[in-house]
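ESCALATION

Customer reports they have been waiting on this structure for their group meeting. Please prioritize. Original submission:
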Amino acid sequence: MPNVDLNAAIANLVAAEVKAILEPYMSTLDRVAAFVGGQPARRGPGRPRKSAGLKAKPSHRRARRGSNVKRAARLLKKFSEGQSVTYKQGRGAFEAKVLSIDTEAGTLILARATDGKKVMRPVRKVTAA
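Update from on-call: job pushed to the front of the queue and completed.
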């Protein structure tokens, strides 16, 4: 008995039926698609595209260059490997120990106290216990 993919067979049957049902309307659908520009009338969920004529408002706040990097480096100095800490993730706070410190990325690699799971958290989410 040959190996038959049932899902593929059903998909082929459905495609053939849909094509047969839509065949009388294909010329009308092609004209509508050409009139609209081939784009669907409604986009899916998500942000709308920015119009070419509209520009984003300039921010009134000035960007501070390098301040986050400097702040992360300053905060990383407070931590050392093996230190007990607490960190925030989602709605909870967890106790952990510092396994390693990544100074370039500004993150800490922690081992959760309850189950030993290793997590990487940004330094601003971690506090000394």
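Sent to customer with the following note: Residues 107 and 123 are 5 Å apart (CA to CA).
Escalation resolved.
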